[in-house]
Design goal:
heterodimer; A: 330 residues; mainly alpha; ABC transporter involved in vitamin B12 uptake, BtuC; 0% strand; B: 260 residues; alpha/beta; Rossmann fold; 4-stranded antiparallel beta sheet
């Protein structure tokens, strides 16, 4: 039995822990900064010169915020896709939404670098096309099964991989910077990426809060949702667009980060149950902290190497995925 | 209450229900019976707007259902399937509370009246003690009652049931059908259901529609419909109709299949 009061406590605790983790993460790095110094520098603001002003305000804080925002967005995206497809395997990475968005971003980065301001839009369009293909391939009269999701995800990922490979060969001279972007690294993204996406992310989160009731209704199955007077197709389309939007802005900012959208909602469900009223905020908080840990770990554990968060997530996420399969979680 | 006029339904270009008409009066229990693949469930699904139909009209109190919004219909009519999927950790009470959804505006919370209706629905289905339990912890019969409770919380005037007893054992089958009868008698709820079991259809219905290959073969009271000829024609079985002391409705004793 899932108790609502307990679920609420778990969510609040996770949010508090996330904030604490963010403060600690700001202190970690080649220059270690103590917590009182972090707090005083943050309180003083970026205009007042201090020892750590530049390092905190221009480097560490933007990177930490970026990790939090992107982790939260990808996790919400996964949670929404799981509601739409009625399946815990749905995730922007496995379904090909991420690579669809990435292929379109590369199209700009490599072929039309003068259009950089269109990157978020391109990611959104690419993600939507990938999602549409997955639906067309995976949808049967009886709904979507895990097998058809994986298979159509494989097909879409292969297609996008082909496009990405083709673009890389055509524009091999511009490749290094694009690779740095593509493999899900938060290094050197800083304020520019943060400014590019934070407004979109907040809009996406607010829309996600409005989507909670609809996600709960659709979880009851098509027949029951119809019975309750909802248009199932319309909910599916709306929630999918929102999920693609949140995944796309993440891709636009930092490239491909896998498994956050799969693992985090799953862990959130174990902790607070499957009611989206609790599961969605929990996914948001956990997504933020998971990606923060992956990014901070990546830049500190192997210092001076900066391992992209995307790579660390893949290394952690792959085995977790296998574990879920063994447990027959779906 | 419900009037089905010349309904034709096609499934992948093949017409499976042909020009089907019937009427359900307010406060009646009507059962649709027929062999597998006759189209009986398809007709019920069309009424519940889960199956598109090519021609014909379905009127709810004289109003064409095509002109009513999905939410308006949800406040008047509710369909219950033979098997329902639910998130396993949802509590009985929360499931039943979803029945109030069509009556609520966006983001409107449940009020005292809604709570009272939910409690009433739980009480009616003898689930008051189970309300904090997750659905997964219930037996098949209890789970089916929880879905009926959700339907009740919707406060429909018409309840549609698609083979509500198929996955239940005999005692639970009767429990569900007795509940349906009780709701019908006490609240005047109109019921349209698809049933497999001829004796259940006979004992629990005011009217019976017999479907054969997508056509209306017969319609009438159990006494009129349940005849040896009908069973031979529709099901290709020899049968004998009997009456027992504790029930007015005809009982069907099946003997053997008719060799063609």
């Amino acid at each position: 039995m899932i108790h609502t009061a307990r679920s609420r406590m778990i969510i609040i605790t996770t949010f508090v822990v996330t904030i604490l983790a963010a403060i600690i993460a700001i202190g970690l790095g080649s220059v270690h900064i103590s917590i009182p110094d972090i707090l005083s520098t943050l309180i003083n603001g970026r205009d007042k010169e201090g020892v750590y002003t530049t390092i905190i305000w221009d480097i560490r804080l933007p990177r930490v915020l970026l990790a939090l925002i992107i982790g939260a967005s990808i996790a919400i995206s996964g949670a929404l896709l799981q509601a739409v497809m009625g399946n815990p395997l749905a995730d922007p990475g496995l379904t090909g939404v991420t690579s669809g968005a990435a292929a379109f971003v590369l199209l700009i980065l490599l072929a039309n670098p003068e259009l950089t301001h269109l990157i978020p839009l391109a990611a959104f369009v690419g993600g939507l096309i990938a999602a549409a293909i997955v639906y067309a391939l995976a949808w049967r009269r009886t709904g979507i099964t895990p097998i058809t999701i994986i298979l159509s995800g494989v097909a879409v990922n292969a297609l996008c991989g082909g496009v990405i490979g083709f673009l890389s060969i055509l524009y091999s001279d511009r490749l290094p910077s694009a690779v740095q972007w593509m493999n899900g690294s938060l290094a050197a993204k800083g304020n520019a990426s943060l400014h590019m996406i934070y407004v979109y992310a907040i809009i996406g989160w607010i829309l996600a809060i409005f989507a909670i009731r609809k996600a709960n209704i659709i979880r009851l199955g098509d027949q029951v949702a119809t019975n309750l007077g909802e248009s199932v197709t319309r909910i599916r389309i709306m929630l999918s667009i929102l999920a693609v939007f949140l995944a796309a802005i993440s891709v636009a900012a930092v490239g491909m980060i896998s498994f956050v959208g799969l693992i985090v909602p799953h862990m959130a469900r174990l902790l607070v149950g499957s009611d989206y009223k609790y599961m969605l905020p929990m996914s948001m908080a956990m997504g933020a902290i998971v990606l923060l840990i992956a990014d901070t770990g990546g830049r500190t554990l192997f210092a001076p190497l900066d391992i992209p968060a995307g790579i660390l997530m893949a290394v952690i996420g792959g085995p977790y995925f296998l574990y879920l399969m063994r447990k027959r979680a779906f | 209450m419900l009037k089905i006029e010349q309904l034709s339904i096609s499934y992948e270009q093949k017409e499976v229900v042909h020009n089907f008409s019937f009427e359900v009066k307010k406060g009646e229990i009507l059962s649709i019976i027929g062999p597998n693949g006759s189209g009986k469930s398809t007709i019920l699904k069309a009424i519940a707007r889960m199956q598109p139909y090519s021609t014909g009209n379905i009127l709810f109190e004289g109003e064409n259902m095509r002109r009513l919004s999905s939410k308006e219909i949800a406040r008047k009519m509710c369909m219950l399937s033979q098997q329902n999927q639910a998130p396993t950790d949802i509590s009985v009470k929360n499931l039943v509370a979803y029945g109030r959804y069509p009556h609520k505006k966006w983001f409107e919370r449940l009020n005292v009246e809604d709570e009272a209706i939910i409690d009433w629905a739980l009480e009616k289905t003898y689930l008051s003690h189970y309300k904090e339990k997750p659905i997964a912890a219930l037996s098949g019969g209890e789970a089916q009652r929880a879905w009926i409770a959700m339907a009740l919380a919707q406060r429909p005037q018409v309840l549609l049931l698609d083979e509500p007893t198929t996955f239940l054992d005999i005692a639970h089958q009767h429990e569900v059908l007795e509940l349906v009868r009780e709701l019908n008698r006490e609240m005047g709820m109109t019921v349209v259901m698809v049933l497999h079991d001829l004796n259940q259809a006979s004992s629990y219905s005011d009217k019976i529609v017999v479907v054969k290959e997508g056509n209306r073969a017969q319609m009438g009271t159990p006494d009129e419909v349940m005849t040896e000829q009908m069973i031979q024609q529709i099901y290709r079985m020899e049968a004998e109709i009997q009456y027992v002391s504790w029930d007015d409705s005809p009982r069907i004793q099946l003997k053997n299949t008719v060799k063609v």
